[in-house]
Structures are given as C-alpha cells and as structure tokens.
Amino acid sequence: MLAAFAVLLVFQCLGEGIVFLFGLPVPGPVAGMLLLMAALILFPTLQTLVEQGANTLLSHLSLLFVPAGVGIVAAAASGSGHWIAIIASVGVSTILTLAVTGLMLRKLGKEDQRDA
Asked: Last residue of a domain, which of 17, 41, 57?
C-alpha cells in the first residue's frame, strides 16, 4: 500500500511541477490526475498497484473534507458585513445555472429527437 501512495504522490508532484514550470492555468493535482490517467492507459498493470491505495483513500474520504470545512468556518468572519452581496451572488448564480442547464437540456433533447 505504501507503493500505491508513493505512486499517487509522485503523480501529484509531477502535476504541480509541470503547472509551475509552464505556468498553466490548471491546478497541479488535476494535471497530475491527467498524467496518472495517461500512465494507467499506457501501463495497465499499474492499475492493480494504485487501486489498493486509492480504495483505502476513498474509504476515508470524509476526513479529507475536514480542512476545507475548517477553512470555510475561519473565512466566514471575513464575510461579515457583506451578507447582502453574498446572498445576492448565490441567488443570481443559482438562477443562471438553472437557466443554462434548462436551455442545454432543451437543445440536447431536440438533437436526440432528430437522431431517433
């Protein structure tokens, strides 16, 4: 299992390094996941090694959300006095997301009916 964690960490570090060197507008872990996906496609035997470590991490996934929750609570103090702007931005973004999703579903539904 230590080897699986090492492989995952190496790919995350590779992603961070590539993003830093080339100044890409992508988070380092995302680039690392893309590199890992490419490695898994090229070397299918790597899957058995990584799978055990990944399943162990997934079984403890809820613990990985604790730092994010603490960060939200700590940052909530900086939002005091801006509640109207926060509520308005959440409301507007929710309505826009629903509208765009509805329009996309309508458009994709029409294309599906043409294909049938």
From this structure: 57
